[in-house]
Amino acid sequence: MSRPYRKTLRQIWWAPLACFGLAFALSRTDSLRQFEWHSLDLRTKFRTNFQAGPDPRLVIVLFEDDTEARLGQPWPVDRQYHAQLTQVLALAGAKMVAWDVILDASREGDGDNIMGQVAAAANESGTKVLSAAVTNAEPTGVEPGKEGPTKPLLQVEGDITKLDGDEHAFIPFPQLRAVSLYGFANTPPGPDGIRRNIPLAVRVGQAVYPSISMQILLAHFAVKPEDVRVRLGDAVYFPAEGRTRRLPIDERGCFLLNYRFDQSGQAGDIPLYNYGSLLVALSDVYLENKKLAVAPPDLKGKIVIIGQTVTGKADVGPSPLRELTPLSYVVANLVNNVLTEDYARRVPDGIIWLTAILLGYWGIVFIADRSIFVLCGGAVAGLISYSSLVLWAWVWESWWIPWVAPSLGFVGLQFIVIGRRVWQEQKAKQEIKGMFGAYVSPQLVDRLIKSGVPPQLGGHTEEITAYFSDIQGFSTFSEKLSPDRLVELMNEYLTVCTDIVQEEGGTLDKYIGDAVVVMFGAPIPLGDHAYRACVATARVQRRLAELREKWKGEGDKWPPIVWEMQSRIGLNTGPCVIGNMGSRTRFNYTMMGDHVNLAARMESGAKSWGAFTMCTEATRLACEQHGGDRVVFRPLGRIVVKGRAQAVPIFELTGLKEWVTPETRECLRLFSEGLQRYYARDWEGALVLFRRSAALEPNIPGQTPGVHSNPSLVYSGLVAGYQVTPPGVDWNGDYVMQEK
Fold first, then answer.
1. Mean pLDDT of the chain
2. pTM for this one?
3. CA atoms within 13 A on the CB side of 422
4. For 693, which of 89, 255, 571, 610 is 20 to 30 Å away at the CA?
């Protein structure tokens, strides 16, 4: 990734997360859901121009207002008419007659007995008769499943209290339920009144029964209730036609309806017949043996779903295609979905929003710095492309991809990206780059642009944390590697070091051969600069260990010395002079002062203590103030660096808390106790503890690549020497460095 793109990403890295995060939160609100459903309904209406017809086995029959006039009876009519229609449909060869009406209360006369007898005869002749039931909160005096062929579903996994249903139910009258199946017609509407998620399983008390749509399917495929497996939040499974059918459901046992067909009168819809007209025509042919000028429809092998739409009593509601439609179309569409395996599928939210965020970052990286014309054109093209994808995914594959909320997030992101380009890039970038065109460090210019704060000319004092790093034995690398290999190795190493310190907020001061000099806390003040410097140090050492493994895995490309590369890092925190320094024609933004020199001494002095990271007490205290105990330190004693008279407490930065193993923690505990014995001149006790900690050191000579010593071994040597030649009475444990 080039520097301008990294700069842009650093400036508005939050934008995709903020825009799409807010859009996702809004998508959970009822208002935005309404808009999303409405957009889906528009796609559904558009789809009717391209979709294939329904399963040819489906037929709908409706009892309408003119049926009342034809029969001379208002709804509900005498059940002898229902019995007669069932009889002639069976004679016509219908495979199934499904009454999508509630025929619960017993009625006077012979209608109930006749319908029960006809239903029994139809079932025996091969025409299955089904009817509807519905749950109820109050007792109804009947118990579902107690009599007749209808039985509950026994294999139900999940919390059935989430199912739609109630404690009691209205079920078909005794003569009908004793000889035929029934299913529950519970179809609760959504907030907008449209039925989109249809229950396949309904709870009655502590039992679970199939819905009428599900019962139609089970009867069609000749599936026994005990062979049905319901996994709430997953699917309904049952064997059919030599394989296992899977009907996806949510945790409420609801199936996402792929609504395609309605009472539109078009040739491509489910065939629709009038109850009265069909009853008369079929009776004339099959009961009266009349020859009609216009033959009745061929119903052989059909699944006939019967409903009613009488004004004032109509079983109707809004649908995705019409403001008012018979609810029998809900049943018919669901059955059609399963027969044709035409399922609506919603793309998971995780995929949608993760893709949106990744594309948002892709746009920031590759497009955000283009011209305003390109940005605006890209925004329009992106919105059109996504809308087209959403539309055609639903039209051709029945994949429901949310449109409203992701589009809002996209528009919001474009507003930020284009706004930034117009205002920040055109204004701040030109101003600051015009002032500091003589700087050779693009990192500094990028930071100044991002901060929006004009830099101070000249030097000033600022508390910072200085960072020095150097490769152990680098001169040997120069001898072992050809110039091109050495350049390749250093570029990879320095890139890793630089990227990490910049990610943690550090500013690259300079490279000195293999050395890296960084300042944390300038030119942009950072309250937690010491903590950031310590974290960067731990990350650099961990990343270098990964590089060693990578280089070793590259075989003969690198000599063994590269596999053992180690880097020493020194840190110190304190007030330093920060500013523009150099000649009148060429200058650099850098740091100087006693505390900078002390940081350099920490890097060079680490070798004497067998450590690879060393810092002063000032750095440790400032780090713990902001980072708590996340960074793990080990006290190494007190040293007097060259050029100073006062001893400085020093510490090894062992690593981040989450990386330090229990063995290393035990090593640090033993070492600290040994250090206390050391200061108390208890040479024997100190030596025992240092030898014990040496066995637990994270870096052990001969085991860790490039390691020749460690703090435990160093102190073991010091103690052994003092056992032979004890120090004078004025000894206080301070160590005086003789080298820089």
1. 89
2. 0.58
3. 10
4. 571
Is 642's pLDDT higher than 70? no
Asked which of 124-138, 146-160, 172-186, 416-430 is least confident by mean pLDDT, the reply is 416-430
Q: Are 386 and 406 in contact (CB under 8 A)?
A: yes
Rounded mean pLDDT, 146-161: 95
d(CA 614, CA 636): 9
Q: Check whether residue 68 and residue 143 sit in a common domain.
A: yes
Q: Is 442 within a domain?
A: no
Alpha carbons 541 and 655: distance in angstroms, whole number: 9
Contact 529, 505 (CB under 8 A): yes
**How far is Cα of residue 22 from the mean position of the Cα atoms in its chain?**
15
Cα→Cα distances 9→503, 678, 705, Å:
12, 52, 37
CA 90 from centroid of its chain's CA atoms: 53
Please identify, among 636, 654, 672, the residue that sits at the C-terminal boundary of a domain.
654
Q: Which residues contact 25 (CB under 8 A, 6 or more apart)?
A: none
Q: What does the alpha-carbon distance between residue 261 and residue 268 come to, in Å, rounded to a whole number?
A: 8
Q: Tokens 């991002």 sit at which residue?
A: 450
Per the structure, the complete domain to which residue 303 belongs is given by 55-339
In this structure, the answer to whether residues 614 and 705 fall within a common structural domain is no
Residue 519 φ then ψ, to 5° = -120, 135
Write a three-state SS string for 559-590: CHHHHCCCEEEEEEEEEEEEEEEECCCCEEEE
What's the domain count of the chain?
4
Tell me the H-state helices in 135-257.
174-177, 212-220
Q: Are residues 511 and 539 in the same domain?
A: yes
Residue of 422, 410, 423, 453 lying closest to 435 (CA atoms):
453
3-class DSSP string for 689-721: HHHHHHCCCCCCCCCCCCCCCCHHHHHHHHHHH
- CB-CB contact of 604 with 627 (8 Å): no
CA 300 to chain centre: 50
CA distances from 69 to 66, 75, 79, 85 (A): 5, 10, 17, 17
Residue whose pair of structure tokens reads 């100190």 in the numeric block: 686
Query: How many CA atoms, within 13 angstroms, populate the side-chain half-sphere of residue 127?
Result: 25
DSSP 3-state assignment of 428? helix
Peptide bond into 318 cis (omega under 30): no
Dist. CA 470–CA 472, nearest whole Å? 6
Please give the radius of gyration of the chain, using alpha carbons only, rounded to the nearest integer.
41
What are the DSSP calls for 92-152, one per residue?
A: TT-SEEEEEEE--S--SSSHHHHHHHHHHHHHHHT-EEEEEEEEESS--S--TTSSSS---
User: Looking at the structure, do residues 288 and 367 belong to the same domain, yes or no?
Assistant: no
In this structure, the strands spanning 648-656 and 631-640 are: antiparallel
Euclidean distance between CA atoms 7 and 11, whole angstroms? 6
Residue written as token pair 């050391």: 678
Token pair of 676 as six digits: 């206390």
pLDDT digits (tens, 9 = 90+) for 366-393: 777 777 788 888 889 889 999 999 999 9
